[in-house]
Design brief:
D-Maltodextrin-Binding Protein, domain 2; 6 helices; 16 strands
Length: 263
Amino acid sequence: MADRSDDMIATLCALAIEGGRIAMRHYGEVGEVQAKADSSPLTAADLEVDQYLCEGLAARFPGTAVVTEERAATHAPERAASRFFLVDPIDGTKEFIQARGEFTINIALIEDRRPVAGVVCAPAIGRLFAGAAGAGAFEMPATGGPQRPLSLASPDNEALVVVASRSHLTPETQHFLDTNRVGRLTNAGSSLKFCLLAAGEADLYPRFGPTMEWDTAAGHAVLAAAGGFVEEISGRPLEYGKPGYRNPFFIAYTPGTQFKRAA
């Protein structure tokens, strides 16, 4: 990655931190909630954060395409070049609307179909996670401050700590949980699930439900930078720039974690 550096990660963190501040100005008072074509909710905060991030990325990384959830025009296949940004201005809009705290601001850089850098900022709970391939991953306060390197936990394969979506516990997910040796199930919203693995707070995240690439790329980048894995059910690495930017089912896990790929 030509500009993979501390400066690049610092820039992405600064953008995400300010995006978080913008979102928090609306937190608890979201105003009118619109419905998008897919029936998912849209607020003024989504659009304001989206505008800030897109303009900031364009100014700081000219020539690198930006694919963002909130701009359908960016979803054309030709936007997914060998190098592009994937942005979800507010991942977990339902959590944001309900003031549950687990929404995130997501920015990821994709190169050759892999997420090579990412930032996940969760301003309502005060946590920011970031990482880049070859440079490791770290956590810092969502308003900025000292960085703490992230380290993965050593799994207890007789009692795995699994993190799953509070709102997407599908029958396939339940079957996976019943098939494997789960000691504790942790619920979390949005892309925080990847970050909990990266922070050593969980071992495994199965996703047997629909997601889009902008939902997963930043968290995937953080987990990969920390040494974890995100794979399709077949075991093939999850890639980006797919037609329609839709993900298949996948499993995220940490090294040493043993599980059955039940579906």
